[in-house]
Amino acid sequence: MSDNFLREIDEEVRRDKAADIWKKYGNLVIVLLALLVVAVGGWRFWLHRQEQAAHAVSARLEEALKASRENRGEDAEKTLTDLTKEGSDGYRLVARFRLAAEAARREPADGAKAFDALANDSTVEQVFRDLARIRSNLLKVDSAPYAEIRAAVEPLAVPAGTWRHTAREILGLSALKAGNLDEAGRWFDQIVVDPQAPQGLRQRADLYLGLVKAGAVEIK
Questions:
Q1: What is the secondary structure of 8-69 as a DSSP string?
Q2: How far apart are CA 105 and CA 110, in angstroms?
Q3: CB-CB contact of 208 with 176 (8 Å)
Q4: Which of 11, 90, 125, 140 sits a CA distance of 20 to 30 A from 32?
Q5: What is the 3-state secondary structure (H, E, C) of 60-94?
Q6: CA distance 58 to 65
């Protein structure tokens, strides 16, 4: 009985303390809970609006790609130009790459300039700047001297380079076009012996090596 009595007293004390705390801070707790509800509701509304905006930008990007597939280059470029100023950073970057690709379809030199602008933009993540440099020099293979291509692309052809496979192919083609068979063979060899190189690219490199072994040729 003594233990039961002590427990009842302890519970009474706790209830009294809880009642005192509620009297003192109850209104503050209610206000905080109300603010929490408003904040959660606002956050969910913001997420909903962001999702709606992303869907809208995605739809416009698909519209631009459809225009490109239908050879409506001007419509595609107009929409893509608008998208470079709208939406998230990711969508703007995709729009810039697509816009450069559209320019390249119209005029390779213009496309190369657009990709160079991306490659030299310090606000763009490095891996995408490197990709832009790859795309630019791929467009320049038929016109730029090997020394220029090598200066731009060789840093991307290192063993750990993300775009090393394509970089080596560009370097090999540029050297082959310049009649520098030793350099061409070196780059194509690096593709063939790299176990991580895509199978299709390794097959192409084998064909290029056949041209190298055949001697000087004119690449048109």
A1: HHHHHHHHHHHHHHHHHHHHHHHHHHHHHHHHHHHHHHHHHHHHHHHHHHHHHHHHHHHHHH
A2: 9
A3: yes
A4: 11
A5: HHHHHHHHHHCCCHHHHHHHHHHHCCCCCHHHHHH
A6: 11
Contact 201, 191 (CB under 8 A): yes
Higher pLDDT, 183 or 88: 183
- To the nearest whole number, what is the mean pLDDT of the chain? 81
Summarize the confidence of residues 97-106 as an average pLDDT.
89
pLDDT at 95 exceeding the cut of 50: yes
Distance CA 26, CA 213 (A): 88
H helix runs in 73-163, sequence order: 73-83, 89-106, 108-119, 126-140, 146-153
Q: Range with the lowest mean pLDDT among 60-64, 107-111, 129-133, 204-208?
A: 60-64
pLDDT digits (tens, 9 = 90+) for 187-197: 999 999 999 99
Residue % of the chain over a pLDDT of 70: 70
- In this structure, is the dihedral angle defined by the CA atoms of residues 121, 126, 132 and 133, taken in order, positive or negative? positive
CA separation (Å) from 48 to 45, 53, 57, 71, 86? Answer: 5, 9, 14, 35, 17
